[in-house]
Amino acid sequence: MTTRSMIHTAALSAAAIALPISLGFLAPSAHATDSEPFGSACSSVPKEGAGSLDGMAKDPVATAASNNPALSTLVTAVKKAGLVDTLNNAKDITVFAPTNDAFKKIPKADLNKVLADKEQLTKLLTYHVVGDKVAPSQLSMGSFKTMEGSKLTTDGSGESYKVNDTSNIVCGNVKTANATVYIIDSVLMPPK
Question: How many helices (H) and strands (E) does the chain have?
Fold first, then answer.
C-alpha cells in the first residue's frame, strides 16, 4: 500500500467515525415520542388523583377533562353543547383541548354569545375533535378532518407544535380511556 493510499484510507475512516458524531449534534435535544406526554404545561397537570396524567388515562375524555382544573371552561362548554356522552362514547378520537386561559383570549361578550348558541357552540367544539387517533409523529405537517367537517392543520417538530398556525400545543399526547388529548393555548375557529 502506498503512502498516498494509506492517507486516503485513514481520512475515509476518520470521516466515517466523525459523521455519526457530527449528525448527533444536529439532532434535536428533545422530541415528542408516541408514548409519552410532552410540553411545558405538562408540569402543571396535577401529580396525583383523577386530574393527573395517570388519572386521566382511566376515564373517557369528557370525564377526564372535568378532572383537570385547567380545562374547566372547556368542560362547561361541552356540557352546554350536550356533547359529554358523544365524546365519552367515541372510540380512538383526538381532542385539541383549549385551556381556561385560551378561552380568556376571546372577548367576554363574544364568548357568552357562543355559549348561549348551542348550534354555534357545537360547531366550535366539534372543530377541536378529530375522529381518529393522532400520534405525535403525525403532527409535523399534518392535516386532519374534524368532527365538525372541516380540516385543521398541525406543524412543528421536537416538542414544539402549532395547530392552524395560531395555537401552541402546551401539553400533548395526554391519554384518556378513549382519546388522545393535545392541550392548546388558543381556541380554534372553524372556517366560515
Answer: 8, 7
86, burial (CB in 10 Å: exposed 0-12, middle 13-18, buried 19+): middle
Superfamily of domain 30-184: FAS1 domain (2.30.180.10)
Distance of alpha carbon 139 from alpha carbon 154, whole angstroms: 5
Q: What is the DSSP letter of 67?
A: T
Nearest to 103, CA basis, from 86, 128, 133? 128
Residue ranges covered by each domain of the chain = 30-184
- Rounded to two decimals, what is the model's pTM? 0.83
Per-residue pLDDT of the chain (192 residues; tens, 9 = 90+): 554 544 444 444 444 444 333 333 333 335 567 888 999 999 988 888 988 999 999 999 999 999 999 999 999 999 999 999 999 999 999 999 999 999 999 999 999 999 999 999 999 999 999 999 999 999 999 999 999 999 999 999 999 999 999 999 999 999 999 999 999 999 999 998
